[in-house]
Specification:
Blueprint: E1 3-8, H1 12-21, E2 27-33, H2 36-46, E3 50-54, H3 62-69, E4 76-81, H4 87-92, E5 97-100, H5 105-139, E6 148-153, E7 156-161, E8 167-171, E9 174-179, E10 182-187, H6 190-196, E11 202-206, E12 209-212, E13 216-221, E14 227-231, E15 236-239, H7 244-251
Parallel strand pairs: 1-2, 1-3, 3-4, 4-5
Antiparallel strand pairs: 6-7, 8-9, 8-12, 9-10, 11-12, 13-14, 14-15
Helix pairs in contact: 2-3
Length: 253
C-alpha cells in the first residue's frame, strides 16, 4: 500500500531533510514544491494521499494553498512551521498534525503514524468500493443514467443535456459543470453525480474532476508520470496516474 506524498516547502535543505526522515517503504514521494503555487498545481494534479505543507512559502502560504485547493479536496495534511503560534490554526484547518522546524526524527515518525491512521482506512475503503462496484456490474441489470442535469440559474431552471458537458469539477459543496463557453454551479458532490452518469462516457481523471471522454482530443505526458488531457475546446486538465487506466478503458469502448 503506497501513500502518495507531496512535500511543499520553500527551503530546499528543509525538503531534503524531511525526505531523509520519511524513509518508509509505504511512502512514495510523488512531488516537491518550493512555492505555494507549485503546491496547488501538484495537489490538484497528482491525486496524493498526504501533503507536508509549509506555512510560509513564496507566492502563497500553506493556509492559502488550502483555501485555493478547497479544504474538502485536500489530501491528509501535516503543517510545517518554524513558529509555535501557527499550531492552533493548523488544527483549525483540519491538519492531522504540525511539525516544528528544525525537524526531529521522533516527531516526524509520530506525525506520519497519525497520518497513516487516517489514510489507510481511506485507501481500503476505496479498494472495497471498487470491488463492490465490479461485483454489482456482474449481477445487476443495466442501470439507467441521466440524460440531462438540472441547473438552477437565477430565477430559471435549465436542463443541460449530458452530451453538452465537457468536464465537471468539485468546488467545496458544489460542482462546476463546464459546457463549452458556460460554467454552471450546482449543489452536489462529485461522487454523487459520477454515479448518475454513464461511466463509458464520463470518467474520473482526478479526485475532484470528471471528463466527457468524447471531448478528449489527446494526452500529453509529464515528467512525473502524470499526464495532461487536452479537450477539443483547448482546455487542458491534469490526469493523475490513479485514473489513467480507467480513462484508456473508456476510450477503447
Amino acid at each position: 500500500m503506497n501513500i502518495r506524498t507531496i512535500i511543499a516547502d520553500g527551503s530546499k535543505p528543509s525538503r531534503s531533510r524531511l525526505k531523509t526522515l520519511l524513509n518508509d517503504p509505504e511512502i512514495e514521494i510523488v512531488g516537491e514544491a518550493s512555492s505555494g503555487r507549485e503546491a496547488v498545481t501538484l495537489i490538484e494534479g497528482s491525486d496524493a494521499n498526504l501533503v507536508f505543507l509549509d506555512v510560509e512559502m513564496p507566492e502563497m502560504g500553506g493556509f492559502e494553498v488550502i483555501e485555493s485547493v478547497g479544504p474538502g479536496n485536500m489530501p491528509i495534511t501535516i503543517i510545517m512551521t518554524e513558529r509555535q503560534e501557527f499550531a492552533v490554526e493548523a488544527f483549525e484547518r483540519n491538519a492531522v498534525d504540525y511539525l516544528l522546524k528544525p525537524f526531529d526524527k521522533t516527531r516526524v515518525s509520530r506525525s506520519l503514524q497519525y497520518a497513516k491512521e487516517q489514510i489507510k482506512p481511506q485507501i481500503a475503503s476505496h479498494e472495497l468500493a471498487d470491488k463492490l462496484s465490479f461485483a454489482l456490474t456482474q449481477i445487476a441489470p443495466s442501470p439507467k443514467y441521466l440524460k440531462r442535469l438540472i441547473v438552477k440559474h437565477r430565477n430559471r431552471t435549465i436542463l443541460v443535456p449530458v452530451e453538452l458537458i465537457n468536464w465537471i469539477a468539485a468546488s467545496g459543496n458544489y460542482i462546476q459543470i463546464h459546457t463549452g463557453g458556460e460554467t454552471h454551479l450546482v449543489r452536489n458532490s462529485i461522487s454523487s453525480v459520477e454515479s448518475e452518469l454513464d461511466p463509458s462516457k464520463f470518467v474520473r481523471i482526478h479526485r475532484s474532476r470528471i471528463v466527457n471522454i468524447d471531448r478528449v482530443r489527446a494526452l500529453r505526458p509529464l515528467s512525473n508520470g502524470d499526464q495532461i488531457i487536452m479537450l477539443d475546446d483547448g482546455t487542458e486538465l491534469a490526469l493523475s496516474r490513479t485514473y489513467h487506466k480507467g480513462l484508456l478503458a473508456a476510450a477503447c469502448t
